[in-house]
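step 4 of 6: structure.
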Amino acid sequence: MSDKVTLTIDGQQVTVPAGTTVLQAARMAGIEIPTLCHDPELTSPGACRLCVVEIEGMRNLPASCVTTAGDGMVVRTNSPDVIEARKTIIELLLANHPEDCLTCERTGQCRLQEYAYHYGVKGDTFHGERKQFPIDDSNPFIVRDMNKCIRCGKCVRVCEEVQGRSIYSFAYRGFDTIPATAMDTPLAESECVFCGSCVSVCPTGALTEKMMHGVGRSWELEKVKTTCPYCGVGCNFDLNVKDGKVVGVTSNAEAEVNGRALCVKGRFGYNFIHHPDRLTKPLIKKNGEFQEATWEEAINLVAEKFKEIKQEHGPDALAVFTSARCTNEENYLANKFARAVLGTNNIDHCARL
Amino acid sequence: MENLMTACCSECTHSPSQPCPDYIKCRTEGPICHDSEACRQKRQQLMDKVQVSPDKPHRRVLVCAGTGCISSGSRDVYNRMEAAVKEAGIDDCEVSITGCHGFCEQGPIVIIEPEGIFYGGVGADDVEEIVEKQLKNGEPVERLLYTEPTSGEKDKYYRDIMFYKKQERMVLKNCGHINPEKIDEYIITGGYRGLVKALTEYKPEEVIEEVKTSGLRGRGGGGFPTGLKWQFTAQAEGDQKYVVCNADEGDPGAFMDRSILEGNPHSVIEGMIIAGYAVGANEGYVYVRAEYPLAIKRLEIAIAQAEQYGILGDNIFDSGFSFKLRIKAGAGAFVCGEETALLNSIQGERGMPRVRPPFPANKGLWGKPTLLNNVETYANVPIIMEHGGRWYASRGTEKSKGTKVFALTGKVNNTGLAEVPMGITLREIIFDIGGGIKEGKQFKAVQIGGPSGGCLPAEKLDLPIDYDSLIDAGAMMGSGGLVVMDETTCMVDLARFFLTFTQNESCGKCTPCREGTKRMLEILTRITEGEGKEGDIETLERLAKSVKNTALCGLGQTAPNPILSTLRYFRDEYKAHIEKKWCPAGVCSALTVYKIDPDKCKGCTKCAKVCPVSAIKGEPKEVHEIDPEVCTKCGTCMENCKFEAIYKG
Amino acid sequence: MTNSIHEIAGADFILAIGTNTTETHPVLSLQIRKAVKEGAKLVVADPRRIELADIADVHIQHKAGSDMALLNAMAHVIIEEDLYNKEFVKERTEGFEEVVEAVKECTPEWAAGITGVDADTIREVARGYARAEKGTILYTMGITQHICGTDNVLAIANLAMLTGHIGRENTGVNPLRGQNNVQGACDMGGLPNVYPGYQRVDDPAVREKFEKAWGVKLSPKVGLTVGEMMDNALAGKLKGLFVIGENPLISDPDSNHVIEGMKKLDFLVVQDLFLTETAELADVVLPAASFAEKDGTFTNTERRVQRVRKAIEPIGDSKPDWEIIQMLANAMGYPMNYSSPEEIMKEINEVTPQYGGITYERLEKQGLQWPCPDTDHPGTRFLHEGKFARGKGKFHAVRYVDPDETPDQEYPFMLSTGRRLFHYHTGSMSRRAEGLETVYPEEYLEMNPQDAEKLGVQSGDRVKVTSRRGEIEIPVRVTERIQPGLVFASFHFRETWVNKLTNSARDPKAKIPEYKVCAVKIEKVS
C-alpha cells in the first residue's frame, strides 16, 4: 500500500499521507471546513456533523473529520446539498440555544456564532421547545450554562482523554442528552479539580471562566503569552489584559510543554496580582512600625547598612536569599550582587524546600 | 436412558470429555462406536418420543409457552393438561411445552401430534374436554378450532390454516414443535448437523464460501451480504476475534427474534458456533434486551445444555475448535440495536453509536475484529450448512435469497409472525396470510420496517418484496415489521407516532438526530393539532432530507423515512390538515367535525339532550344541527344516535 | 530532569517514587497518564496512597524514610538475578564492584523488614524495571528531603546505570523540580558553592574568569546554605540578610529556630510582593513586581528556558527585582546599567556555557533546553547521550540509615509534610487567589482510621501536634490513604504552621532538611 493518497477536493488535487482524514486533507490544501466537535488533540466522535462533505460514490453526506481520505476520491466541500445540510444543522443548534449573544461571555469567540454568521443563519426557522437548565456556578472557577451547550462532547473527551479524570459523561437521552457529572451534581460536589481544560475546549458559552465574567469583551482583551509562576513544569499561557489589569488566564495552544492543559493554580490562581495586599511602596521600620518611604530613602538605607556590616564584620556577615520565583536574569543579578557587590558567596534559595 | 447424552451401555465411548466428530450421529442414528441392536433400540425410543408419527404409538400434546401464550394463561393449561393426561391414564402421551407459533392472537395454542390438530384460545377449563374427547376418543373439540376470517370455515388441522399455508417455515420450523428447553429435541429433529458438517467437512473459508453462495443477507435491517461480512471479519487481523449476536430487537411490534430465542434457541447457538469457526473467533456474546426475560432464560438453559453436551466449550467434536458463549442483557434502548452502540453497551459504556468505518469487522468489541449478525440471520446458518448454499439460494428472488419472517400487525384479521419466501407480494401477506382487513374495511397503507421504515400505499400491494424493491419504494426491510392500516388511520398522525418513537430513542450524540427529530416531531404535532401553516411541508422535507443525509448512524439516517414516505404517497392528507384544517381519516381530534346527516336525522332530540355543552340545536321532528364552534368533539351524540345520523368528517 | 517532560509518555516502565505528581506537577502528570494509557507499567512508591497510585500497576506503600532500603534491594535483585545491562556497565560506568558489595546484603527480605513491603513485590518491580525497554524514574522531595537525600538520589542513579536506563530518549533519571524557576535559580548561581552554570567558586580558574567578567576580586570561600545561615544568625555571626522573594519563616524547618535567627539579625531586608511573615520581621521591605509585570525567563524542570513577558505595569511603586538589585548595587558603589532583562541575558550568555546560545530572539519563537552552548545549537532534549558529563558514570556505594528521628514512646507518630494541589509554597500568592482559597481554605492532618480510633478523633476534630521543636493545632481528616503511624500535612498555611514541628536535621552533603519525617505526638483538643 502506498503511503500517500491523492484526492480531489473542490477541483484541487491534494496529495496527503495515507490515513489522513478528508478534513485534514482539506485544511492542508487551505480549504476551510467548519467543525464544532472536532479537535485535533482529541478523538473524533463525528457528532456535530457540521463538517459533512459530498464524496462521489458515497451515499449521504459523510463527516469529513472521520472519513479517511482515499486515493482518487472526489470531494466537494461546498455543494448546494452540503451548504444546505450545514445550514440546517446550525439552525437546529440555534433553535435550542439562548439568543443572548449580546451579553454572552463567549461572544466574538463563539464558534456557533461565527458559523451562524458565516452561513447567514438567523435562528428563526424552528420555534419549539428549548431546554431550560439551571446555571451551575457552584464553584469559584467554572460557570456551566448547559443552555448554551451544543453537545459536542469536547469537555467529556478532554477530561477523559487528556486529564484522565472523566468528570463528565453524557447523561440522559435524545433531546435531553447533556454532559453531566456523576449523578448530575453541581461541579463543586463532583471530583473535579478545576483544571479548566473543559473551558479551554468549549466552542460556545456553555463553559466559561467565572472570574472573567464581565471583565471585558474578547476583542478588548490583549493576550500576552508568558510562563506560569507556580510549579516547575513551565506551562505557558496567555495573560488576558485590559486597561492595564490582568483579568484572566487562557490557554495558548502553542504552549510547548502543556498545550492547552493547565492546572487550577495556573489557570485560576492569578488574582494575587491585583490583590489589595500588594506592597506598593518601600517600607522602613521605625520604632517597631513600618512607615512608607521613597525608593531613594529605602535603597540608601539598605546600602548604608550593608556597607556598615561589611566594614565592621566582613562580607561573610552578609547573606542573600535569592528566589526560585524570580527570573533567571534576576537570579543572575542577585548572584552577582552577593558575590561581586557584597563580596560573599553566602547566597542560597529554597531549592531544598 | 434419560437423554441423548446418557451412555447406552458400557461399550459406548462417547462423552463430552472425549469429543468425537461422530458424536451427534452416534447419539441419534447410532450407536456407531459399537454395534448393539439393544442400544440402537434404546436410542430409537428416545427419538420416537419426539418424532411422533401416526404409525407409532407415541402422541404429544404441545402447549405453547411463548411469551404471548403465557400471558394469556398457557402455564395453567400446561399444568392442568399434564395432570389430566396422567389422571386419565393415557400412556405414550407426552405433554410438552413449546416455543411460539407466531399466531399469538389465537393463544393459548395447543397442538395435538401426530395428527396436527390446532386448538386456539384454550383455557385451563377446556383441558378436561380436550383430554376426554380428543385424546381418549379422537373427536375434535369443535369450538376450539380455528375459524378462517374470510370463509368462516373451521380448520381442524394446523396445515389447513391459511395463516400457515402460504408460509415457508424454515427458521421458524421448529418453533412450536419442539421443547426449547430440551437440547435433545433440537438434535433429534436434525439440530447441530450443520455444525458437525462445518467442523468436520469444511475449512473455515469453505464455510464462508457456502454462506456467500447462499446469498444470505443480514436479517436485521440493512441487508448486507452475510458471507461478505464473515469474510471481512475472517480477513481482519487480530489476536482475538468475537462473534456477537444482535438480539436487541427494538422495533415496536417485531418479535421474530424473541420467538426464535424462546422457541428454538439452539438454532442461534449453532449458527454462532459455525460463524465463530468460519471467522476464527473463540468467544461470542448474545446481546439480548432485558425486557425478554424468557428468551434470556431459554438461552441460558440452551447454553448450559450445549456446554454439557460438549457442543460449546473446548475442542468441539474433536475439531480443535473451541467456542464460548456469553449472554449480555441490554437495558432496552432502541439505539443499542445499532451495531456499534451495541458493542459499546457490551463494553459497559453508554449505548452511543461509533463512527464507521472502522467497521466492527475490523475494530469491534474492545477494538477487536467482531462479527455481528442478528438472531434471524444466525438461525438461517445451520439450514444453509445442512442443505448447502446452492439449495438455499434457490429460494427467494435474484438478489434476496431465502425467507424472511415478518411481524404482521395492525388492522389485519390474522396478526402474528409469518415466514415467507422473499419475493412474495404484500397482497399475499396481508390478504392471504393476514386474512384481509378487519371488519371489512379498506386497506390504506402498510408501514414496513418499523419506525425507521416507510409507509406504502395500496398501489404497492403487488410489489414483490425483497431488500431492494422496498428501498426503491421508499421503505426498507428493517427487521420485518408490517403494520397494516385501514381507512381510519391518519397518515400524518402515523408519521407523528413513529417520530415520537425515534425521537425518544435518539441517543443524543449527533446533532441532526437529536435536534432534528425533535423539530420534525414538533411540526408534525402542530399539523395534527390544527396549527399547521404554509411552508410546513417544505420545512419538513428539507429537514428530513438533511437528517437523512447527515445523521451519524442508521437510526438517525432512517428516522425521517415515515415522513418522507407518507409525504410521497399521501401528500394530500398533509395538505388537508394544513390548508383545510381537516383530517380526512377523522383521527386528529382538533381537526374533526361532528356532523348530522339530514337524510338520516329523525329529529328525535336525543343528541341535543345528551350534548354536555348544548352545541346541538333543532326542533323536535326536524333535522338537528351541531354548532362546530361550541362542540367539544366528545362524541357523546354519535354514541347515542339510534339512527346513525351523526358522523365524523 | 535528564529527559524532557513529553518523553515520559513514551516510557514503558515508570517508577514514580516520592512524588505526588498529580498534586505537585499536575500538568506533567498528564504525561504519566498518557504513558499508562498506552500500556506503560507504572509503579508508584509512596508511603501515602496518593492519587497516582490509583492508576498504578503496583503501589509500594513503604514506610516513610525507608526509600534507600527499597532502592538498594532493587539493585540487589537486579544484580543477583543477572538482569543488569552488562554492556552499559562495562562501557559507560565505573565503581560497579563497590555497588555489588554495598547491596550484597540488601536482600528483598531484609528490605521487607525495613520498608514493610512484601519481598516478592520488590522483586517484581526490580525485574520489571530491569527488563523494561524504556524505564524511567521520576522523583521529587519524597526522595531528597531526608538526611540521606543525596544518597537516595545516588541509589536511584545506581539503578539507572545498572540497567542502562539513562542517556536515551524516554529513559532516564528525572527529578521533578518543584518551583517555577528553581532550576533557573540554581543555574544562575543562586547557590553558595557555584557561579552560574555550576562553575565552582573554589576553582581558581573559574574564579578568575568571573573576576575578569565582573571586574572585582571574588571570595574563594564556599558560602552558607539557607539552614546554615540561620544557624550563623543565631550564633551572631551573620548580621545582615537580604531576602528576595522568599518566606523562610513558613517554608524552612523548625520555624521557631528560624524566627529566633531572624530576630537576632542586625539588619533584615525583605523584597516581596506581599508583607509576608518574614517581611513582618524586616527592617526594610522593598515592594517587588510580579511575574506579570516584568520581562525575563524561567527555566523549567526539563531545563527549558522560556520567556516571561510583561503584561502590565508594576503595581503602585513596586519594581521588578532586577531593577531593585541594580539600584542597590549602584548605591553600594558597584555600577550596573542594564537597560532590560535581555541585556542581562546577553551577559549570562557570555559567562554560562550551558546558556551560551539562549537568546531572546530565539526564545521569541520557542523555548530552549540547556545545554545550548551556542546560537546554532538546538538545545538538548535529554542528557548523557553516549557519555556522562563527567565521562564515566560513577556508581556509589550507599547504605541505609534510619531517619534522624524515629517514633518513640513520647513521640509515637511520624509526621511527613508536602504540598497540596490548590496551594503553592508558603501561600503568599495562592492564598491570595480567591478561588483557590475558597476551594481549599484550611489545612488538615491526614490520619489513618486505626490511629484516629485510638486517639478517639474523627474528621474535623482538632488535635494538638507536638514535636521536640514546637506545637500546632490542626483539624484531622481520617483517610485510608495514609498508613497507620504516619500523619501528613502541607506547610502552606500559617494558621497550621507545620514547619514549627519539622526537623532541621540536614543531609550532610546537600544540606537538605529532613522535612519528610519527624517524630510527633498527637492529642485531641477538647
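step 5 of 6: annotate
 - Chain C has three domains: 5-176, 182-369, 413-524.
 - The radius of gyration of chain C is 24 Å.
step 6 of 6: archive
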